[in-house]
Amino acid sequence: MRSYKLHGEQNFKWRGSDVSRLENLSDIVFALVITLAAAQSVPQSFSELTSLWRDALSLAFCFALLVVIWRLHHVFFRRYDLQDGTTLALNAVVLFLILVYIYPLKFMSDFVVAFFTGGFADDAEIIAALSFDQVAWLYLIYGGFFAGLYLTFAALYAHALAHADDIGLDARERAYTRFEIENGVGVALLSAAIVAFAFTLPAPLAPFVGALFSLIGLVSWVCGIKAEKRALAAEARL
Fold first, then answer.
1. Contact residues for 222 (Cβ-Cβ < 8 A; gap 6+)
2. From CA 19, how far away is CA 99, in angstroms rounded?
3. Residues 6 or more apart from 217 whose CB is under 8 A from it?
4. Which terminal residue of the chain, N or C, has fewer Cβ atoms less than 10 Å from its own Cβ?
5. pLDDT, tens digit, for every residue of 2-29?
6. CA 113, CA 182: separation in Å to the nearest integer?
7. Cα separation values, 68 from 30, 42, 46, 65, 232, Å
8. At how many degrees (to 10) do helices 216-236 and 171-200 cross?
């Protein structure tokens, strides 16, 4: 039985111990992105100050998503401790994506919070912020972000799997590395499907296709079952 209560995971041995310069740079970028999101919430009047709770909710959503992405990044480097050129290039893509998408993410968060908490004065103000005709394009922006992000992480894991012998991955770790690849590709395909639905469904229905992002959990569950079967089969052959 592996010990993973304080360090590591059930299916992986953590190899990265010291924080590399690559991870330091990445943490700086993550901190910068959070700062950019928070900077947009600075009140300019007392009236804006009294409604700051909406900005706080919006910022909390952005922060939570960025923490999830940061953890994906952190866990990868703890598992494999890779610092070669390919890892550097793919890591740069991840950082570029979160830098580019922080403003669209904050816009979407602000809009959703204002919409569900009565932050808009009337329908005209809502349409001025986001019309039905623009919803599909908004999903294209966010679907592209999720697809690009998860495909990049899938590429990172594929790179790690290609060097499994050099890293010293055992059978279970190889099985769950494949899980990460399949999960990343699955989320990317789901994102593409959501974008397609947004463009093909009638305009009044398009805003609701975002609920399909909840299927990310189902994608991970299916991939996890396959990974566990592969791991058990590989361990049985040893």
1. 186
2. 22
3. none
4. N
5. 444 445 678 888 887 777 788 888 888 8
6. 33
7. 11, 25, 33, 5, 28
8. 160
How big is the CA angle at 163 (ends 88 and 89), to the nearest 5 degrees? 15
156-177 per-position pLDDT tens digit: 999 999 999 999 999 999 999 9
Please, what is the average pLDDT of the chain? Answer: 85
Q: Which long-range contacts (CB under 8 A, 24 or more apart) does 114-122 make?
A: 114/54, 117/54, 117/57, 119/51, 119/54
201 Cβ partners below 8 Å, 6+ apart? 209
Distance CA 187, CA 147 (A): 7
Q: How far is CA 218 from CA 52, 101, 165, 214, in A?
A: 35, 25, 31, 8
Tokens of 45: 């009047």
51: its two tokens: 């409604």
Residue 80 token pair = 């494999």
Give the span between the Cα atoms of 158 and 163, in whole angstroms: 9
159: Cβ contacts below 8 Å, ≥ 6 apart: 82, 86, 87, 90
